Amino acid sequence: MSKRKLLNSVSTTSGFTLLELLVVVILVAILAGIAAPGWLGYLNRQRLTRARNDLIQVLEQAQTDAQQQNSTRVVSISSSNPPQVEVSSTPGADGVIRELGEQNSGLLLVGGPLSSGPVASVAFDHRGLVDGDSVPFIFSVTSDNLGTDLVRCVIVPNLLGSIIRADDNNSVQTHYRE
Fold first, then answer.
1. Cα(43)–Cα(66) distance, rounded to whole angstroms?
2. What's the whole-number mean pLDDT along residues 160-166?
3. CA-CA distance, 44 to 107, in Å (whole number)?
4. Rg for the chain (alpha carbons), in Å?
5. Number of domains the chain contains
6. What does the alpha-carbon distance between residue 175 and residue 142 come to, in Å, rounded to a whole number?
7. What is the pLDDT of residues 36-67, one digit of tens each?
8. 158 occurs within a structural domain
9. Do residues 101 and 82 make contact, with C-beta atoms less than 8 angstroms apart?
10. Residue 7, in any domain of the structure
């Protein structure tokens, strides 16, 4: 009888065994390994889209300022880190500088007319129109991360200064086939 009393008197404790905790940790690690690349790709796409939207905002503001102040506005790009856009009244003049993205964000910004060599600026005249030699003007925001081919583009397609968003080089080439 004393053995039965001992077995019945031993209280059972609730909780998890070490093996159960180990299984849960391994499952969480596997799920994190599966989700991490997708999450990093999402973050890269968001950085590029944010930089492109900032660039569009700068272009639209420069065009509006040119019309309202009845003067020329030149938007110049710089491939510094982070990429910078400068809006000035004449080419080469000092103007307002705006950064696209954060420091060390790994973004690259290039731009130029489709028909000629690289030109790093586009000008809006007093009516908000673009110089005829500069159209179509294409800005491309890319990531310098290895293994990624993400591109976000901004196109100024015609003399009227309209602005088009594109998500990759294929959509740019669809708009403009030579």
1. 35
2. 86
3. 10
4. 28
5. 1
6. 19
7. 989 988 888 888 888 889 999 999 999 999 99
8. yes
9. yes
10. no
